[in-house]
Amino acid sequence: MFFRDIHTRIRFFFLFIFCLLIIIVIRVFYIQVFDYQKLSTLAESLWSRELPIGADRGTIYDRNGKVLATNITTTSLVLIPNQIQNKEEVAEKLSEILHSDYEDMLAHVSKKTSIERVHPEGRQLSYDVASKIDELGYDGVYLVKESKRYYPYGSVLSHVLGYVGIDNQGLSGLELTYDDYLTGKNGAIKYFSDGKGNRLELSEVYEEPQDGIDLQLTIDLDIQLAAERELDNIMSKYTPEHALILAMDPDTGEVLAMASRPNFDPNNYQDYTTETINQNLPIWMTYEPGSTFKIMTLATSLEEQTVNLFEDTYYDDGSVNVDGATIHCWKSGGHGAQTFLEVVENSCNLGGYTGTFLSSKMLI
């Protein structure tokens, strides 16, 4: 009886071990076949690192295909702290080249992170500075491609185009309004390292950046340049507080030119005040149409043939009463007897009102 119980227990024990092995085999099979891709991706994320490659923003053109905003290629400094051996020496050399504080640079090269950007002194470096860093040949010190926005015509159309920040994000104007379209998708050079950050001898993977979508405006650069030139002449001759020009196609409503003063150079936006940068006067500033509206009312009168410019006359005595309100002419005592052509030439308030009255009466 005693031996029978022992044999029974042994059989149950081996049966349990056998079932456990079957479960382990099934689980391993499931992991290897069904969960392989998921686990491989998770494992790869633990030992893969990426050096970013900046994408170009979309180019902005005028209506005739002339470039208004484009990109130039620059380089930026990226550090892999775990790969840097002599951190004090590297920090000293980099701070000398970048003319930055040694303690700040030492903090960058010693930071407990997989990838460290040196910002802002390490961004958008000149060719000479990038060459000096490259000649150092230090492990863990990398130069990566970045795209910098460039406006070939400087301050021309500056308020309309706007500007972008150091990370190539639109901050004002069309650059901000269409930022989602103009912004591309950054690429990367993917490499592999162990848990201590040491680079593994595995092939790098290149992920190509995707450039942003181009944008074509209704602006005509030739008309825009003429408008800018005239605004400069106005500012020089009359020194007004501000001035603006807007040119449109009357048939389509397309904006052909838009400019205002004061303006700024979006290539160096940091040199200007926020008030100067953010005031696109043709769409920001409110103002009364004033005497310019007289042309519209007179044109309506001519269209409806209620006024003859050369034969019809109007006598301006300086004021007129309209529903209990007295409207005065800008000239004290009025202009006296005038043809309606002279009403336009003199910008006569009361003559303009009469033209409006005649045209509206005819339309009614």
Describe the 3D structure.
With about 375 residues, the protein is α+β, with helices and mostly antiparallel strands. The protein is built from 14 helices and 14 strands. It has helices at about 1-35, 35-45, 85-100, 100-110, 125-135, 160, 175, 180, 220-240, 275, 280-285, 290-305, 340-345, 350-364; strands at about 50-55, 60, 65-80, 115, 140-150, 185-190, 205, 215, 245-250, 255-260, 315, 320, 325-330, 335-340. The strands form five sheets. Strands 2, 3, 4, 5 and 8 form a five-stranded mixed beta sheet that branches. Helix 12 (about 290-305) packs parallel to helix 14 (about 350-364). It is elongated and about 135 Å long. The termini are far apart.
Q: State the helix count.
A: 14
Secondary structure tally: strands: 14
Instruction: Note the overall shape.
Output: elongated
The percent range for strand residues is 15-25%
Order of helices and strands: HHEEEHHEHEHHHEEEHEEHHHEEEEHH
| Main sheet record | 5 strands, mixed
Low-confidence stretches: 359-364
Distance between the termini: 122 Å
Secondary structure category: alpha+beta
Rg over CA atoms, rounded to whole Å, is 37 Å
- Mean pLDDT, rounded to whole units? 84
Which range best describes the helical content: under 10%, 10-25%, 25-40%, 40-55%, 55-70% or over 70%?
40-55%
